[in-house]
């Protein structure tokens, strides 16, 4: 199971408790907020944006106090998303000695086409199309997982698909349920344009062989392990990391580089499934991911911006649609724009509507 599937499952379970408490199949964000404290056992405090405890953030999770602080000067949609995002940290992150803070960007104009829900770790949202974490460190990965949790808590993809099939469109859904417009658009796009792939459970943990244990618990500072295909290299790495953490090495001081994203993802999930303390704080990724991380952290040295983006499958679809539409508008293929690319007053909804009607039919 990839980390974003796990975030969605946790969000669905939390939402089920909230729905049972408020008695509505499709509650508004305000109705969810009204029952969140009593249902989830977490205090919610609305504070001034210059409150010392916030430390300049928009929201803050004080795990040891079971409290979420949220600035009180933002719109209802923003409050709902900030709360949902921090709840994502509550359910998904390993307990940390220091409180975690989040700053989420919200556009004042609800009609603005910009992303209204992107965490500062990376402005691009993460959809089911980016099941593999391309190049994020532990902090960025946690932020993106919290984003996925927040969207699924506020508007599950199943609910988005059901509302769409009955004629509801993005702006109507956002207005009626008091949700950020970009959250609605993201969930609709995920539900209608991407395949519904069932989560794959994590492989059961197996005890290490003698050779694997020898490698995992080697006391030497530098160890070169030679192993061929199918010999359990990932399993050995899992036990090595678990051994280091059990020996007192802080998880956030451990770097694991692999040849594939799948191996890195599997390693973190196995550590999480084995209840290894602070497993989510281990930096695990490919050599390419590490290079991207290096560019992001030290972008000024390379003359770049810090917001280097990796396009996931959904963003690639959007880019393709824009490129094809521009091609026809510039005189290609007889100057005729196909119906699927003919924009309505809300271009995003128009494109989504045309494509969903052509390629997706409700069961």
From TrEMBL:
Pfam family, one: Peptidase_M78
Binding residues for ATP: 227-234
InterPro entries on file: DExx_box_DNA_helicase_dom_sf (IPR013986), DNA_helicase_UvrD/REP (IPR000212), IrrE_HExxH (IPR010359), P-loop_NTPase (IPR027417), UvrD-like_ATP-bd (IPR014016)
PROSITE patterns: UVRD_HELICASE_ATP_BIND
Keyword Transmembrane helix belongs to the record: no
Gene3D superfamilies reported in the protein's UniProt record: 1.10.10.160, 1.10.10.2910, P-loop containing nucleotide triphosphate hydrolases
Keywords: ATP-binding, DNA-binding, Helicase, Hydrolase, Nucleotide-binding
Domain UvrD-like helicase ATP-binding: 206-363
UniProt GO BP: recombinational repair
Molecular functions (GO terms): 3'-5' DNA helicase activity; ATP binding; DNA binding; hydrolase activity
Listed SUPFAM superfamilies: P-loop containing nucleoside triphosphate hydrolases
PANTHER family: ATP-DEPENDENT DNA HELICASE SRS2, UVRD / RECB / PCRA DNA HELICASE FAMILY MEMBER
Protein name: DNA 3'-5' helicase II
Organism the protein comes from: Pseudomonas syringae
